[in-house]
Amino acid sequence: GAGVSQSPRYKVTKRGQDVALRCDPISGHVSLYWYRQALGQGPEFLTYFNYEAQQDKSGLPNDRFSAERPEGSISTLTIQRTEQRDSAMYRCASSLVGEGTADTQYFGPGTRLTVL
Amino acid sequence: QKEVEQDPGPLSVPEGAIVSLNCTYSNSAFQYFMWYRQYSRKGPELLMYTYSSGNKEDGRFTAQVDKSSKYISLFIRDSQPSDSATYLCAMSASYSSASKIIFGSGTRLSIRP
Q: Which of A99, A112, A42, A23 is nearest to B100 (CA)?
């Protein structure tokens, strides 16, 4: 596709339910990132992958959050037993990492998660 | 203390004015400095990047980095109403390989016609 796509665009769920957020990166992009953005704040790093390998998950808030990218393309961010404090915009970004070139991350439109 | 500090604004200036946006940071490992622009209800888009101290110019935009002071700036000349957006400074420890980006909180900018 032309850009990073995310689905669903909006998700409303009840506290305690599990949710799965999907990211489809730009074709051929090696690296995929997940960020969370609260209203009026900049994106906060959660985790990233190179191909299918999760390289850094230091930003995941707790063990209710997990992410996978099994075939090195589409990624899923899963939040188990959602809590109201999980409500935020979840953004995915991808980049084409090359030797000696600047790593530009391209962001998707985000999934707005609301936990009631 | 946050790794990256940015004044949230909002900042409102008349069309044609010079705009100065700034961030400070505390992590000496940061080597790659970026400015992202985010329009309402959209994802951030990369505006400029640099990985050395000094100035980098691109049209009406100039990015400035002072590593000794851990201070970065973005200047917008001849500002236009279409420049109205939130501007996010961002930085990472690497520019040539995948690395997490640490963002500032963003400055909301409004250019009055």
A: A42
Alpha carbon separation from B90 to A78, A111, B14 (Å, rounded): 26, 21, 26
Contact A111, A7 (CB under 8 A): yes
E strand map for A1-116: 5-7, 10-13, 19-24, 31-37, 44-50, 53-56, 65-68, 75-79, 88-95, 106-107, 111-115
CB within 8 Å of B14: residues ≥ 6 apart: B111, B112
Whether the pLDDT of residue B99 is over 80: the answer is: no
CB A115 within 8 A of CB A10: no
* Per-residue pLDDT tens over the stretch A89-109: 999 999 987 544 567 889 999
Q: For residue A41, which amino acid is it?
A: Q
Which residue(s) pair with A101 in the sheet?
Answer: none
Q: Which of B8, B90, B101 sits opposite A40 (nearest CB)?
A: B8
Give the mutation candidate from A105, A106, A111, A112 for the B interface (greatest B CB count, under 10 A).
A105
A50-54's contacts with Cβ under 8 Å and 24+ in sequence apart are: A50/A97, A50/B98
